[in-house]
Amino acid sequence: MTEEQGAAGGASVEADDGALPGASGLGERERAVLAVERRSWPGPGAKERAVREGLGLSPTRYYQLLNALLDDPRALAHDPVTVNRLRRVREERQRRR
Q1: DSSP character string of 66-79
Q2: Structure confidence at residue 15 (pLDDT)
Q3: Which terminus of the chain is more solvent-facing, meaning fewer CB atoms within 10 Å of its CB: N or C?
Q4: Which residues are within 8 A (CB) of 96 and not within 5 positions of it... i.e. 6 or more apart?
Q5: Where does residue 35 rank: exposed (0-12), middle (13-18), buried (19+ CB within 10 A)?
Q6: Beta pairing partners, 4
Q7: Which among 64, 70, 61 has a CA at the least distance from the CA of 91?
């Protein structure tokens, strides 16, 4: 199992859930993005800090990648619970606009 450690606060981002590497067709970064979304976060800023330090991405780029993943059937096959939850959240936000 691969873990990337963030320096501040010991935040870690798990890049893999124990499945065989590439078994879902997703790359390490895509699996890491989904792993971030599976976690619960203690407060504002913790998730963004983990994204910056653990994944090396700006929050804006992270959310761009995440949004693209929600439409990727490989992501749905890899983590259906997380992807379906995030799709529902996205659809609700679009309805409110």
Answers
A1: HHHHHT-HHHHHH-
A2: 45
A3: C
A4: none
A5: buried
A6: 13
A7: 70
Distance CA 79, CA 56 (A): 22
Residue 63's CB is within 10 A of a number of other CB atoms, namely 13
Q: How far is CA 58 from the centre of its chain?
A: 13
pLDDT at 9 > cutoff 80: no
Residue-averaged pLDDT of the chain: 82
pLDDT at 14 over 60: no
**Are residues 33 and 62 in contact, defined by beta-carbon separation less than 8 angstroms?**
yes
Q: How many CA atoms lie within 13 A of 49 on its CB side?
A: 14
Sequence length of the chain is 97
Environment class of 82 (CB within 10 Å of its CB; exposed 0-12, middle 13-18, buried 19+)? buried
State both tokens at 31. 């699996």
Q: 42's torsion region: left (phi>0), alpha (psi -120 to 50) or beta? A: alpha
